[in-house]
Every structure is written in C-alpha cells, then in structure tokens.
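Continuing the batch. This is chain 6 of the set; chains 1 through 5 are on the previous pages. Same settings as before, nothing changed between runs. Recording input and output for traceability.
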Amino acid sequence: MDPVAEDELVGMLNLLLEAERAGAAVAYETASAAGDGALAALMRAIQHDEARWCAMLIGHLKARGARPSQKVGEFREKALAIADLRERIAFLNRGQGWVVRKLEAMLPRLPEGGLRSDLAEMLASHETNIARANEVAGRSG
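Output for chain 6:
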C-alpha cells in the first residue's frame, strides 16, 4: 500500500475535521433536545469526544504548516433536519461509521508516530460511541 502523500493527508485531515465539527454540533443539539437521562448523557459524551478530535486534528494540521478548514460538514444540516431522536442517532451513527471507514483506510498508509497513534485512538473512540449509541437509542423511550 502506498504511503499517504502530504497533500492527500492534509485534505483528509481537513475532511475529518469538518465531519467532526458536524458530529459535535449534532450531538450537542441532540443532547439538548433529549433533556435528561441516558440519551442526553451519551450525546454530551459524544459531543465532548468530537470536540476533542477536532482539537487533535487542528493540532496535527498546524504542526504540518497547513491551514485547518473552518467549514462544518453538510452532515450537520441533514442530521438536524431529522426530528425523531432515534432516527437522528441512527443517522449520526452512519456518519460515525463513515469516519471509521476513512480512518481504517488511511491508518495502514501512515508511518508509525503521533498522528497514526492519535488517529487509531480516534477510530477506537468512534467504534465505541457507535456501540454505545446503538445500545442507548435502542432502549430509550
């Protein structure tokens, strides 16, 4: 497998950043709409994770001398248009799954080091959040 070229890597990091911003916004709005309880708590935890990954991605972009994107992914508007919270969470999970697939494709092409380690942690976090959201949304009222 070919290593990731620098311009491709910067483009992918910015695409992930835009997706993470969208995910953070969706999780925040969903937590607000859910009120109290397990679903709201989970969405707040996911929002916190998404914000953490935004900061990590920005740090790696800046360390490369690249300009972090200021955009928010289109996913935000599409997800927030879904009024039913269970359906919105299912859509959020599809977005999280997209991130998982992008990371799984990119990780083998990266050299060992801080970026690869951080992205592997981000991948594991997304997989965990997908499973948690499936569990909580499945039993929420």
